[in-house]
Amino acid sequence: MKKIIAPVVLAAALALTGCGGEEAPAAGGVENKVAETPQIPDLDGDWKQSNATNKESYQQATIAGDTITIEWVSDGGDTTSIYWVGSYEAPTDGNEPHTWASQRDTEATDFALLASSDETKEFTYEEKTISYKVSLMGTTTTVELEK
């Protein structure tokens, strides 16, 4: 009789501990989780400065194909001036941050009074925001753009 009671008690104990609410791992002790691959972000489209201190004056950008164009906006949108026209390198994977060195389009910017004269500009995309440095009249700030 004692030989029968021990296996029954062991089976009952195992059955009761299995009701703890935790999901049991799959065969081999490995949980079935699908590794999520980060999606490649599509940066094409219109962007607007999200950290502007004035609602009437800010920067906006358009990414189309292999070009990024950035404008100064003033008068609440009535006036725009070219700040940057340059190359754009789209992300090839979903890893962040994505950075690229944009080469300035001199034909598009040489005669624009408020355009940057830098030959290259470093851009960073991270957490749905594009950021870059802007210098004007001895002051440098980081501009953040969002779609």
For the structure shown, list the relevant keywords.
single chain; mainly beta; 147 residues
Overview of this structure, please?
- This protein has a domain at 45-146.
- It contains 2 helices and 8 strands; from the N terminus they run αβββββαβββ.
- It has helices at 2-17, 106-109, and strands at residues 45-49, 58-64, 67-74, 79-87, 98-103, 120-126, 129-136, 139-146.
- It has an 8-stranded antiparallel β-sheet with strand order 4-3-2-1-8-7-6-5.
- The protein is globular.
Gist of the model:
Keywords: Signal. With 147 residues, this protein is mostly beta strands.
Which helices and strands, and how do they pair?
Layout: H1 2-17, E1 45-49, E2 58-64, E3 67-74, E4 79-87, E5 98-103, H2 106-109, E6 120-126, E7 129-136, E8 139-146
Antiparallel strand pairs: 1-2, 1-8, 2-3, 3-4, 5-6, 6-7, 7-8
Protein name: Lipoprotein
Signal peptide: 1-20
Keywords: Signal
How are the strands of the largest sheet arranged? 4-3-2-1-8-7-6-5
**Which blocks of ≥5 consecutive residues have pLDDT under 50?**
1-22
Output mean pLDDT: 85
Structural category is mainly beta
Order of helices and strands: HEEEEEHEEE
Sum up the overall morphology in one term.
globular
Helical fraction: 10-25%
Number of strands: 8
Compute the number of helices. 2
Distance between the termini: 76 Å
Please state the CA-atom Rg, rounded to the nearest Å.
28 Å
Signal peptide: 1-20
Organism: Arthrobacter sunyaminii
Keywords: Signal
Protein name: Lipoprotein
